[in-house]
């Protein structure tokens, strides 16, 4: 599955300053990794955000956000945000920072 290179580039701009930043093809898209842990990514035209289990329910109440159900079963702690929900740099930054905070809270792999 193809993914939005434009969205991937916008995310890279926010994360590539980390020494421990890498990318991996996952979930039919592109995952951005910090310390070997998935942070966020792009699947099709959508942002995939790893928000963590504590923020999961609150995030699902935000417009343009839905469960990540890649396997047919919702993955608690991960959400998809439709393109309309990350149109502005402010919107994207909010989600990337939330994902970055969670990923950096995990032990390095």
UniProtKB/TrEMBL annotation:
Residues 13-102 form the TfoX N-terminal domain. Keywords: Methyltransferase, Transferase. The keyword Transferase applies. This is RNA methyltransferase TrmH, group 3. GO terms for biological process: methylation. It comes from Simiduia agarivorans (strain DSM 21679 / JCM 13881 / BCRC 17597 / SA1). One of its GO terms (molecular function) is methyltransferase activity. InterPro entries: TfoX_N.
């Amino acid at each position: 599955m193809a993914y939005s290179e434009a969205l991937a580039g916008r995310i890279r701009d926010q994360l590539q300053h980390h020494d421990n930043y890498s990318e991996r093809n996952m979930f039919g898209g592109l995952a951005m990794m910090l310390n070997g842990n998935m942070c966020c990514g792009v699947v099709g035209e959508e942002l995939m955000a790893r928000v963590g289990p504590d923020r999961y329910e609150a995030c699902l109440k935000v417009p343009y956000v839905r469960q990540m159900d890649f396997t047919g079963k919702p993955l608690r702690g991960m959400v998809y945000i439709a393109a309309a929900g990350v149109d502005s740099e402010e919107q994207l930054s909010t989600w990337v920072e939330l994902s970055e905070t969670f990923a950096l809270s995990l032990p390095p792999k």
